Amino acid sequence: MFADEKKVSESDVIRIAERVFKETSAHSKFYKRISVPIGDDCFSFRSKGSEKIVVTTDALVENVHFKLSYFKMKDLGYRSIAVNVSDLASHGAYPAFIFLTVGLKPGFRLDDLSSFFSGVEEACKDFGCVLAGGDTNRSDNLFISVTAVGFAKSEMSRSGAKPGDLVCVTGNLGLSAAGFLVLEKGIDFRGFENAIDRFLKPKPRIEEGNILAESGVLCCEDVSDGLVRELRNISEKSEVGFEVFTDQIPIAKELKVLQSILPEIEPLEAAISFGDDYELLFMADESTISDLANKNIEFTVIGRVVEKERGIKLSGLFLDNLPDGYEHKF
């Protein structure tokens, strides 16, 4: 993985980060809001009118979130930005500024650092945000910590669901799971290229999140830890229950194809519990959902919000009897 070219120093990280800042800021609509740019102890920016500033942070740790056996450094750079931007999208926010901390292993090489930052740069350009600062440290395992800042005119959260709302999800579920399984099991890539790309380089639903928020949707969460886990999160914060119909859940066709190669794979189970899809799970009343059907957003109605005391059921099965989503264990 690491070439024998040159070891990395902190000044190398700063130099490359400053170049990426210049490249990404030139493509950002938020550039004029910058007060103090990268290179100082703090980065500062101005808000505008009644817009809300939305902030999220997330980390990726080697052998926990990724394996270098199948992650190229460029894809890892891209992914580290994408998973944070997806959180902003679930709040209806456009991503603006990215703060990146990297913990580098002893002997980390300059060409790998350059490849990683090329992925960061590509993601920032794709999503319209700017690398605004960060930090670097020495670590036994490679880790990446990102803080992302965005702006929202209308914000969504986990706490906005109410009984009677319809439960919906964008896109389909399980595509990333299929990509992971192909890589993990060493299966022939042919026919699974889209699934592998989704796993390595997630595509956050930025525009869809903005459309949902502006259309009056109040409750939304990205499907990062699996549908089951996200339903639990929203249930807790909104104090509601759910009735979800499994035959309405849009499952990626790649999972069904993969089952013919790996018979032990259950497509529905993988689709609702694996995560890493970064689709949007949202709830809204029937009128709002009806209006959304006429807008440029692909989604499927998969159930209905019910009273909290009715619990969470998927086609009649209580959630406690179903495979859970991803959760860190310590």
Describe this structure in words.
The structure is a single chain. This protein has 330 residues and is α+β, with helices and mostly antiparallel strands. The chain has 2 domains: 10-152, 2-Layer Sandwich (60s Ribosomal Protein L30, Chain: A), CATH 3.30.1330.10; 166-321, PurM-like C-terminal domain (Phosphoribosyl-aminoimidazole Synthetase, Chain A, domain 2, Alpha-Beta Complex). Helices cover 34% and strands 24% of the residues. It has 10 helices and 13 strands.
Structural class: alpha+beta
CATH class of the largest domain: Alpha Beta
The average pLDDT value, as a whole number, equals 90
Largest sheet: 7 strands, mixed
What helical percentage do the residues reach? 25-40%
Broad shape? globular
Strand order of the largest sheet: 8-10-7-11-9-12-13
The end-to-end span amounts to 28 Å
